């Protein structure tokens, strides 16, 4: 498996992973009406525009068959000074639990460190306990709770913070 930056040709695969994971992960957490409105095409537009915006980016995990099996995205987190936001992390269901997510998190953490950021944050939807457990196990600490807005759909969410990026470069 290799991790590399997303290119335009990868966007369809990332859109599929993103949409399928949202519909699975957030079933019974977010309203069905919101999840049913999610489409591959809408997600494709999101990620295509994302990689063409300054200070944002996406890394993909690619298996030995050149298939994208996961991705992580980042952008500045303007609520805190000098903080990068790990904006999205999704792994195909067939390889979840194999360490790919951790490698993608560390890739974003190293990117933050190498680009002069002092902290890394992630926003999680309350009820996504598995994700929260992974991030706290890797050293993230609770920063605050807030109401997130997903295209008009409110969500109880939390921000977790890694205050020391050295953990991402020392391993």
CATH topology: Aminopeptidase
| General form | globular
Can you identify the CATH class? Alpha Beta
Quote the beta fraction.
25-35%
- Assign the CATH architecture: 3-Layer(aba) Sandwich
Strand order of the largest sheet: 1-2-3-4-5-7-6
Radius of gyration: 15 Å
Class per helix and strand makeup: alpha+beta
Number of helices: 6
Please tally the β strands and state the result.
Answer: 7
- How much helicity do the residues have? 25-40%
User: What is the count of structural domains?
Assistant: 1
Topology pattern, helix = H, strand = E? EHHHEEEHEHEEH
Task: Indicate the mean pLDDT.
Answer: 88
Oligomer: single chain
User: How would you sum up the major sheet?
Assistant: 7 strands, mixed
Distance N to C terminus: 18 Å
CATH superfamily annotation = Gcn5-related N-acetyltransferase (GNAT)
If you had to describe this structure to a student in words, what would you say it looks like?
- This is GCN5-like N-acetyltransferase.
- It is a single chain.
- This protein is of the alpha+beta class.
- It has helices at residues 11-25, 32-37, 40-51, 100-114, 129-137, 166-169, and strands at residues 2-5, 57-62, 68-76, 83-91, 119-125, 141-150, 153-162.
- It has a single domain, classed as Gcn5-related N-acetyltransferase (GNAT) (Aminopeptidase).
- Helix content is 36%, strand content 32%.
- Helix 1 packs across helix 3.
- The chain is globular.
């Amino acid at each position: 498996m290799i991790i590399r930056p997303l290119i335009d040709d990868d966007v369809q695969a990332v859109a599929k992973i993103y949409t399928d994971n949202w519909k699975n992960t957030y079933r019974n957490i977010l309203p069905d009406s919101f999840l049913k409105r999610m489409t591959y095409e809408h997600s494709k537009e999101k990620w295509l525009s994302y990689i063409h915006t300054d200070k944002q980016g996406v890394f993909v995990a690619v298996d030995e068959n050149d298939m994208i099996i996961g991705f992580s995205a980042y952008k500045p987190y303007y609520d805190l000074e000098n903080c990068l936001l790990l904006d999205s992390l999704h792994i195909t269901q067939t390889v979840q639990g194999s360490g790919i997510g951790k490698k993608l998190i560390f890739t974003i953490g190293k990117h933050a460190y190498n680009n002069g950021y002092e902290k890394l944050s992630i926003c999680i939807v309350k009820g996504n306990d598995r994700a929260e457990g992974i991030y706290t196990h890797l050293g993230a600490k609770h920063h605050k709770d807030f109401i997130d807005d997903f295209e008009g759909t409110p969500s109880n969410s939390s921000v977790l913070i890694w205050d020391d990026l050295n953990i991402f470069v020392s391993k």
